[in-house]
Every structure is written in structure tokens, then in C-alpha cells.
Amino acid sequence: MSAEPASTHDAAEVLARCDVLAGISAAVDGIERSYLTPEHARTNWTVGEWMADAGLAAWQDAAGNQRGSLAGPTADAPVLLLGSHLDTVPGAGKYDGVLGTIMAIAVVGRLRARRIELPFGVEVLGFADEEGTRFGRTLLGSCAVAGTWDDSWWGLQDAHGVTMWDAFRAFGLDPSRVGEAALEPSRVIGYLEAHIEQGPLLQDADRALGVVRGIMGARRFELEMIGEAGHAGGMPYGRRRDALLGASEVVSAVEVLARDAGAVGTVGKLRAFPGAMNVIPGRVEFSLDLRAESDAVRDDVWREIEETARKAAAARNLAFEVSEMHAARATQVGKSLALAVEAGIRATGDAEPMYLLSKAGHDAMAIADLCDYAMLFIRCKDGISHHRDEAVRADDVEVALDAFEWAVLELAGYNS
Ligand code: HGY
Ligand code: MN
Ligand code: MN
User: Fold this and answer.
1) Closest C-alpha to ligand 1, atom 6
2) Low-confidence ranges of the chain (pLDDT < 70)
3) Ligand 1 center to residue 389 CA distance, Å?
4) Which residue of 27, 75, 356, 370 has the fewest C-beta atoms within 10 A of its own C-beta?
5) Domains parsed from the chain with CATH numbers
6) Which of 87, 79, 18 lies closest to 50 in space, CA to CA?
7) Is the pTM of this model over 0.90?
8) What are the tens digits of pLDDT across the range 158-208?
9) For residue 202, what are the CA distances in angstroms to 186, 195, 293, 375, 377?
10) How many A from CA of 190 to the centre of ligand 1?
11) With a 6 A CB cut-off, is 130 part of the ligand 1 pocket?
């Protein structure tokens, strides 16, 4: 019987593990892993094995996050958190979230292989829900760890009417114990996350890596225009209450208003009811994802969008309804943690690391309620993400591992 080959903790292994997780999907023709599903359970099991192999004590927490601990020198030693998320959007690529989680495991494996003794403990976190795909509310896993879980989320329902409460129970979790996932702020040094950029700026600047300076604040809404269905031929224009025409005015205004303010707004979902060729749409459900570097700008744009929508509804005799699904404040990185990431990039030969604002949301924005955070961005091909064509270069992942490991050593005081 041949022994298992030893883990290499290098880019080839990290990328091979991303390929393995890409095979754990609810969809046959793409990658889709959402919260509290059989795919979530299989992913945690697989990642837990890799954690154990790197020398971490692996367990699944009370919110379904996959976690692994490396003990510090004493029982009460503080803990450095490393991680990212393991869930995906529908039709995802292989690297969003997954790459950062697997890199964190690899860095711990490398430190252990070199017998480095850190002055703190390390915890690697594979967050269970960052995307919010199943229940509409995002950052669920990291909010549980940050101690900001909100009991009003128990009643949220997925597309099949299953509540969060019932989904917890079906997954084998006890909803009443979700608080046990939270970390005590006084125990935590900070949180480092590696992630693909999900934009084209590093590629355009011909750089493999970047330091995040902050993350845009986001709000997400479910919107509804309600009119009256009717005959597509017989009903004269003057009497129509076409909900899709009202919604269309809002969709177009989102681009103009957000762009003018330097914000980003996206209507990613829209459904017209009853949804027939020859029926005037009587009701339209649509979504809005709105982001900006400052919460004040984002909130001003929302007020303008809402005003536009109410005017469009009034002009067409429609009702307009709003339900806010998610709000996350804009955050800045912790300075000393970001300097450690910057030092890590310098150590790879980039004398002047590039700083970027993250327009994508990350678990770090929820963890910011627990402790300081910093992020390392990795170039991705043509900035493509939330798409099956997401791609990274192996040589970029190799230097990213070096930089991430260096950042941990920097915080441990090894590099000075
Ligand atoms: O939507 C986002 O920004 C993140 O990828 N969840
Ligand atoms: Mn994503
Ligand atoms: Mn992500």
C-alpha cells in the first residue's frame, strides 16, 4: 500500500484543490453551492480534511462555517484569523472565495512544515454564506462569527419557501446555538483575507498582487411594481397599468444616478408576472444592488432612485414596494494589518505595491465589527468574476502564497 503523497502547500496544490471544490455543485452545467445544502456539507467535509492535513484542528461551527485552529503558545494566546468563503453564486467561477480559503490553509501548512513557532494562535475560516444566494441576506457566516447574527433572519425563506430556521435544522444545526459561532473580540488580533480582485485594475497595471484600502458599502433591495395584468391587444394604452414599463424606468435611472454619483448600481434580477407574451405585466419583482465608497453617497443615490421610482409609479398608476435585504457599511482596512500585507507584496519583488478599493463585498466587511482586517488582492483574467470563465495564473498564486505567508510572519515579528 503506497502512502499518501505529502502536501506541497504550493500553487499547484492550491489550484488542484480549487478544481476539486468546483466539482461539488448543485448544478450539472456550472458551479453552484449555496448555504445549508448537501453541497455545503460536502465542501466542509473536504476542506476539513485539508485543514487537518495542514495541522489544524478542524470543526464545523454553529452557523455551518468550516473552521480550523492552530493553537498558540498558551491557552489564552490571541488568535489571528485567516480565511474567505466557500459558497458561490449560481454559475460561479472556481476562485471567488475558495482561493482565499485554500490559500489560508496552505500558508498554515507551510509555516508548520518550516516548524515556525508563532506568538499567537491561528484560525482558518471557510465562511458558509457570503453571497447570500439562498436567503437573499448576505454575509451570514461571517456575521455569525462577528457576533452580529440577527434573529429576524430566521424567518427568511428560500425560493422554495424553506425558512432559515428549518434549513438549519435540516442541515443538522441547532438554531438556538448560533451564538456559539461568535468569537470574543478581545481574543482576536485581526483578520487577513486573500481574494481575487474581481476587476481589471491589477491586470491593467501589469501587477500580480494588490493591497485593499477599503471595501465599498453596499445595500440590497427587493423591489416591486404592482399594476394590473390585461389583454395585450384589447387594452388601450391610456388605460394600461403596465408594471414592467414602470420598472424599466427605474432600471434605466439606476445606471444614470449611480454613475453620476460615482457609485455602482445593478439590477441583477427581474421577473414579470404573469409572464406571457400576450399579457400586460401586472406585477414586476426586481432587485437592486447599490454600492459606493462612502455610505452617505450610497444613501443619497438610493433616495434619488426611490424618488424616481415613486414618480414613475404615480405617473402610471402603479404601487411601488421596497424591502431592504442587506446593508453593510463602507469599511477601511486596519493600518498595521494592511502594512503587513504591503510588506508581503514587497517581499515578492514589487517595490511599490498598488492599493485598491474593493467594489466587491467580502467577509472582511462583516468581520470588521469584530476586529481590524486587511486584504490581499490577486489578479484575475480580464477582471472576470461571478462567471465560469474566472481565471488566475499559477505564478500569481505562487507569489500570493509567499506574500500572505510573509504578512503572517510580519505580524508575528519574524521579519524585523
Ligand atoms: O457581491 C459581492 O460583492 C460579493 O462577491 N459577494
Ligand atoms: Mn462573489
Ligand atoms: Mn468572494
Assistant:
1) 131
2) 1-4
3) 16
4) 75
5) 11-215+330-412 (3.40.630.10), 217-328 (3.30.70.360)
6) 18
7) yes
8) 999 999 999 999 999 999 999 999 999 999 999 999 999 999 999 999 999
9) 35, 13, 19, 14, 9
10) 21
11) yes
